[in-house]
Amino acid sequence: MQALVIVAHGSHLNPDSAQPTYDHADTIRKTGAFDEVREGFWKEEPHFREVIRTVESDEVFVVPLFISEGYFTEQVIPRELRLEGWDPDLWESDGTDATEVTLEVGDAEKTVHYCGPVGTHDAMTDVIVKRAETVTDDPDVGPGFGLAVVGHGTERNENSAKAIEHHTERIREMDRFDEMRALYMDEEPEVDDVTDYFESEDVVVVPLFVADGFHTQEDIPEDMGLTDDYRTGWDVPGIVDGQRIWYAGAVGTEPLMADVILERAVDAGADVGDALEQVESWTSERPAAGD
């Protein structure tokens, strides 16, 4: 038997924070690829430290629904799961290429395949592009458009920016959008000045966040000038400094994220049959959460 455990941050304050995790888990559960699919959270129940003990399978694939490698993926999750012998160096990662480490959970008699975060997987690049297609309602969006990938950014975790830059560069290499830029909330170049960095009349802004919350639904729209008060909402597209800003909301709400979670498990050795094809088919026409 094999189980999939999706671990995410969750929130005591934002009841919608966990919704993408449950949505993607439900999608994967429907494929029948795993005998069990469970969700675990840091700030909600079921908690990281207990979730492994809720599965009967001896082989467990743990996929962190986080954007970057760092404090949570390297310290908190392995500690709370009680992964024996864990060391971040086992990933042999430079900050964007963590894959999988197989470890034991002695007190639960489980073999755990601990995967890198979804946010650094190459398949996330396709989800960002899909998010741009969703918000513009145009499967061919690109020519005539700029695309801004927005991250939190923080001096406390240099890997936070690495994930943003990684996907920005991959999309730039597609030569699909007229302009590409990585922007941040807490470091330069800042998303507040989005119109300073693009000449395109139309700019799609995609936040590389797992869930819609305080940052994506309050800070970023106000900082960009889409609205003076997030409580009154904003237009999509909105006009800022004469440019049309297509604000997409958190990338983690895009249904295709379920594909990235599966890709992580497959890379770690999970046998999922045709589940990837099923998810791609189901999510191709499904609206993102909140749309």
Automatic annotation (TrEMBL):
One of its GO terms (molecular function) is metal ion binding. It comes from the Archaea. The keyword Lyase applies. InterPro entries: CbiX-like (IPR002762), Sirohydro_Cobaltochel/CbiX (IPR050963). Keywords: Cobalamin biosynthesis, Cobalt, Lyase, Metal-binding. One of its GO terms (biological process) is cobalamin biosynthetic process. It holds the Pfam family CbiX. NCBIfam families: PRK02395.1-1, PRK02395.1-3. This is Sirohydrochlorin cobaltochelatase. It comes from Natronosalvus rutilus.
